[in-house]
Amino acid sequence: RTKSELRTCLNATRNRLPSKEVKRRSLALATIFYGTVAFLFAKRIALYYSYGCEVQTDLIWRHSRGCGKSVYYPKIDITTDHMNFVRREESESLESGRFGIPTPRGAELLCDVGDSDIVLVPGLGFDREGNRLGRGGGYYDRVLSGSLRKALKFGIAFDVQVVDRIPCSPTDQKVDFLITESRFISCSADEIPFQA
User: Fold this and answer.
1) Phi and psi of 109, rounded to 5°?
2) What is the pLDDT of residues 16-64, one digit of tens each?
3) Burial environment of residue 17 by CB neighbours within 10 A (0 to 12, 13 to 18, 19 or more)
4) In the chain, which ranges are E strands?
C-alpha cells in the first residue's frame, strides 16, 4: 500500500475506537512507559498534545511532572515553519498554535539534547523496525534528524496502528522503541535493556 492509502486506513481504524477504549489503552501504554529504565532516568521529555483518538498524553504529562521531569511540547514557528519544543510549566494553560494545536506560551526551548532525553513521537502507524507514518508534513522527520537526533525516540501507538511494513523514503526518521498498550518493542539492533 502507498502512504496515502495507509494513512486513510489507519486513521479510520484508530478513529473507530470508543473513547472509553482510548482511555483504557492509553493508561495501559503509559504504565508500560513508566516502567522503562529510560523513563526512570530521563530528566526531560518531549511530549505532544493529543487530540481525537490519539494516545492520550495528558496523563503522561501529569505523571512526568509529578516525578520532577521537565516536559516540552512542540511549537511551530510561524515565520520559519520550523518545529521547536517549548517547556510547559506546571500551572500554564496552553494557547492555540499553528494548525490549532495547543502549545505552551513559554519561550524555554529544549536544547543540548542527549541520550538521557526522551521524545515521544506520534504517528498514524508504525512497523516493528521503527518506521513511522505521520500526517505528511515532515515536521517530526526534520526535528528528529536535527535538534532531537541524540534523544531516545519512542513511538507510541495502539496495537491497531502497528502494521507489517511502513513504506519509507530517505528523509523518514525511525523511532528507537515502540510502545503500545500491550508491548514494548526495541526497533534498534542494539540490545540495550531499557525496560525495568
Assistant:
1) -85, 150
2) 999 999 999 999 999 999 999 999 999 999 999 998 899 999 999 999 9
3) middle
4) 44-46, 70-76, 83-87, 95-96, 102-103, 118-121, 125-126, 132-133, 152-156, 177-179, 184-186
CB atoms within 10 A of CB 1: 13
Q: In which element (H, E) is residue 89 found?
A: none
CB 86 within 8 Å of CB 93: no
Beta bridge partners of residue 126, listed in sequence order: 132, 162
Contacts of 112 (CB under 8 A, 6+ apart): none
**Nearest CA to 182 among 49, 32, 55?**
32
**Residue 135: alpha-carbon gap to chain centroid:** 13
Residue of 66, 68, 64, 110 lying closest to 87 (CA atoms): 110
3-state helix, strand, coil in the chain (%, to 5): 30, 20, 50
Q: What is the pLDDT of residues 52-108, one digit of tens each?
A: 899 999 999 999 999 999 999 999 888 888 889 999 987 777 778 777 777 888 878
